[in-house]
Amino acid sequence: MSHTTQELKDELKKSAELLKTLVGEIRVKMHLASMEARDRWKELSADAEHISKEIEQASRGAVEEMVAKLKEFSASIKPKP
To answer: What is the pLDDT of residues 17-34, one digit of tens each?
Structure first.
């Protein structure tokens, strides 16, 4: 895996972890929140969960795609006669 690919993967992981942290912090605050805030929270938390899953799937998909390309390239390399 290239340095840039690893950096991107690390950044995506940090973003997903930040989402989870924020969700946890907001859950604590929601015990004291108004009904309007609770309704908005339901929407936002569902969106955050969806985005977190997309980040994980995108990361896996990108890695799998790169692995397939590298395997194909490796198989196509012929030694010099």
So the answer is: 888 888 888 888 877 778
